[in-house]
Amino acid sequence: MNIFFTVLERVGAEVIECACVIELPELKGRERLEGKPLYVLVEYR
Question: Does any domain span residue 9?
Answer without folding.
Answer: no
